[in-house]
Specification:
Elements (H helix, E strand, L loop, with lengths): L4 E5 L5 E8 L2 E6 L11 E7 L5 E8 L10 E4 L4 E5 L4 H5 L6 E7 L2 E8 L13 E4 L5 E5 L3 E6 L10 E2 L4 E6 L3 E6 L3 E5 L27 E6 L3 H4 L4 E9 L2 E11 L14 E7 L4 E9 L3 E6 L5 E6 L4 E5 L5 E5 L9 E4 L5 E5 L4 E6 L6 H26 L1
Antiparallel strand pairs: 1-28, 2-3, 3-4, 4-5, 6-7, 7-8, 8-9, 10-11, 11-12, 12-13, 14-15, 15-16, 16-17, 18-19, 19-20, 20-21, 22-23, 23-24, 24-25, 26-27, 27-28
Length: about 400
């Protein structure tokens, strides 16, 4: 399958985050960051046409000194988004970082709904690298380098005290009842707090950990180590994890290997693996190598049919979510590795963004999947039969 795709160059706009607000509207977060580059930090909303052309609909310029939006979660059902934007350095120094922002997209304009600070240490290097919404859109996970908090959405009211991790946090994933936090060292599986009809923490006590009128501490259920199929070959870091959108018994994880150092040997190339986990047993069911480059971002399509990844070799790949078979590859999608991928709600479009100031719009054909692989198998079988027939004639 060769999907049609179109790159769009956006002058002076390095891209770090993205998400779809509707089947035909997506938001990009980017800019020059907190450094004095002269490149402004912004949120931009674009509409995309059937021919993959894009039109700028709205642009929201952030305050000078604030950081670029480094992560975004969108809710197409409500036309809202949450993103991570560090406050200006003088506010960071005071521990007053309003790093999480929620916006509504109404009448083709972005309007601020509220802010919430989770990164209050004053560490200028910390930023909101994780912003993920729960499937029902009522909870939001907000993660920095080593801390993560779950809040209600869109009110941004804390539902539980922050989780602290010894290893770096790179991703998180919601099922209906659990939260999986991806750290470089392991996957941490937590039970989710109950939420009442107003989006506030339930007042039901849980093992005595809830203070009167306060949020409930998240209960750690499992700590998942690297799969044996990978760990016995090389050390590795977890990079991302996603539940199957329609089956929470399936979790996908991405691991990047760490090359060993030796004075006498050339370092082995980094490799990336995808694993399928059975969340009832927390055993791996499939392990597949994706290539000799580290994966930089990974997502699942809303319809649960496809998995998309980007790697440090500037490649974008599309996989069948059931078999993990490759369906399509764009070898040089960007000049720099992609920092963000986003499917639209109908799983018919995929966009990628990169600091190279390019957003690429990719069509996902309706015929992609098992039918395309059936054709390939028929062709291979036909060639095999022809070769066997030629060999038989030579023997006669």
């Amino acid at each position: 399958m060769r999907p049609q795709h179109t790159p769009h160059s956006l002058d002076t706009f390095p891209i770090y985050s993205s998400g779809f607000l509707s089947p035909t509207h997506f938001v990009l977060g980017g800019g020059g960051g907190s450094s004095r580059t002269g490149i402004l930090n912004k949120l931009r909303v674009y509409s995309v046409a059937d021919d993959r052309s894009i039109t700028l609909v709205n642009e929201l310029e952030l305050e000078r000194g604030e950081d670029a939006p480094m992560s975004i979660a969108t809710s197409p059902e409500t036309g809202t988004l949450a993103c991570g934007v560090n406050s200006a350095p003088e506010q960071l120094a005071k521990g007053e970082n309003q790093n999480c922002r929620a916006y509504a997209f109404k009448e083709e304009k972005l309007a601020l709904l509220g802010t919430h600070g989770t990164l209050t240490s004053g560490d200028l290097d910390d930023y909101q690298r994780v912003t993920v919404l729960s499937p029902d859109g009522k909870m939001l996970a907000i993660g920095g380098t080593t801390s993560l908090q779950v809040v209600s959405y869109p009110s941004l009211t804390p539902l539980a005290p922050a989780i602290k991790s010894e290893a770096e946090i790179y991703d998180t994933a919601f099922s209906q009842n659990t939260l999986v936090v991806t750290t470089t060292r392991n996957l941490l599986v937590y039970a989710l707090p109950s939420v009442d009809g107003t989006g506030s923490p339930s007042k039901t006590k849980k093992k005595g950990k809830q203070k009167a009128g306060g949020p409930v501490e998240l209960e750690l259920l499992q700590t998942i180590e690297a799969p044996e199929a990978i760990s016995k070959v090389s050390a590795s870091d977890f990079r991302a994890a996603r539940f199957h959108p329609e089956n929470s018994q399936i979790l996908y994880s991405i691991s990047n290997t760490i090359p060993g150092r030796s004075r006498n040997r050339k370092p082995a190339p980094r490799q990336a693996y995808i694993c399928t986990w059975n969340t009832s047993t927390w055993k791996t069911e499939k392990v597949k190598r994706l290539g000799d480059k580290s994966v930089t971002c990974f997502i699942a399509s809303p319809n649960g049919k496809y998995l998309a990844f980007a790697d440090s070799g500037c490649r974008i790949g599309l996989l069948d979510a059931t078999s993990l078979a490759p369906l399509a590859t764009i070898l040089t999608a960007h000049e720099f590795p992609a920092t963000t991928l986003a499917f639209n709600p109908t799983s018919t479009l995929l966009v990628s963004g990169s600091p190279d100031k390019v957003v690429r719009v990719i069509n996902i054909p309706s015929s992609v999947g098992k039918s395309s692989w059936t054709i390939v198998l028929i062709i291979l079988l036909t060639l095999l039969i022809v070769l066997l027939a030629i060999a038989a004639q030579q023997l006669l």
